[in-house]
Amino acid sequence: MANFFQTIFIKNSKLNVNQLIVKKTVISFFFFFVLAGAAIGGWKWLRHQPATADGASKPIRNVLNTNEAIFKGLLSNTHLTKEYPVSAAVKKARVNGDIGMKTPFDPAKWQMYVVKKNGDTLKLRLEDIKKLPKTEVIFNFKCIEGWSQITRWGGVKFSDFIKAYGLHDEMGMKYVGLSTPDKEYYVGIDMPSAMHPQTLLCYELNGEPLPVNQGYPLRLIIPVKYGIKSLKRIGTMIFDDQRPPDFWAKKGYDYFSGL
After folding, report:
1. Where are the domains of the chain?
2. Which of 170-179, 208-217, 249-258 has the lowest mean pLDDT?
3. Rounded-to-integer distance, Cα 192 and Cα 195, Å
4. Radius of gyration in angstroms for the set of CA atoms belonging to the chain, rounded to a whole number
5. Rounded to whole angstroms, how far apart are CA atoms 115 and 196?
6. What are the residues whose beta carbons fall under 8 Å from the beta carbon of 135, sequence distance 6 or more?
7. How far is the C-alpha of 23 from the C-alpha of 31, rounded, in Å?
8. pTM score of the predicted model
9. Residue 26's pLDDT is what?
């Protein structure tokens, strides 16, 4: 090996500067085209792989499932998202999408429908939520679009809500499904993430009622996941042992979406 590098050094030492530049340029282009060809070939191969039921190619879904298994293993009630002082929160929180928010909506008629395991339905108003102990969480809200903001949210712990309304059988199920009143946006949340101590049924932003474009009167805030799971304007809540439909997972995104 030493003799090999010595030979290369001797050969290069006999070249002038321009010759060295030309030689290195040729080598660089060679490796560029080799890697570009490999990338294009890999992309073509990926596109021709069979798709899963949600439309994602099987290799991509396998990678996402592996990520989910890793993040699920890290999740626990003692594994908390970092929180910040009030002074660190932005004054105006960015809106991460408006799907499910475009249908005409009368706040005075809003109710949250909670479908129980036995088929009964609770119909709750905002005052039914606000009478429970209030909690705030100030954390770095992260969007799959690549941006993040430190934001301040107030509401009721999901776990406190479950216990206050006697949803003990429902708590034993594997998933929670949430949808907007118009059913245009919907998410599925694994129960351990829903019951995490930082997960809120949220009705305040920066100490004030939620703005309409942030999900007034009630939304989910779940710091242990990307913002796509923090559904705005909750209309219906269900519980299931099978994965409820999830808007972005149907388009090939990670169902768990954990951080």
Report:
1. 2-47, 83-251
2. 249-258
3. 5
4. 25
5. 21
6. 154, 155, 156, 157, 160, 200
7. 13
8. 0.76
9. 76
DSSP label at residue 174: S
Separation in Å, CA 203 to CA 48, 112, 215, 221, 246: 46, 13, 8, 10, 23
Q: What is the DSSP string of 36-65?
A: HHHHHHHHHHHHTSPB-TTS-BHHHHHHHH
CA atoms within 13 A on the CB side of 156: 19
Do 244 and 176 touch, CB atoms closer than 8 A?
yes
The architecture (CATH level 2) of 83-251 comes to Alpha-Beta Complex (3.90)
Is the pLDDT at 2 greater than 50, yes or no? no
- What pLDDT was estimated at residue 10? 47
Is residue 214 within 8 Å of residue 95, measured between CB atoms? yes
Instruction: Determine the 3-state secondary structure of 241 from DSSP.
Output: coil
Percent composition of the chain: helix, strand, coil (DSSP 3-state, to 5): 35, 20, 40
pLDDT digit string (tens) for 69-121? Answer: 566 666 678 789 999 999 999 999 999 999 999 999 899 999 999 999 999 99
Of 56-60, 138-142, 193-197, 253-257, where does mean pLDDT reach its minimum? 56-60
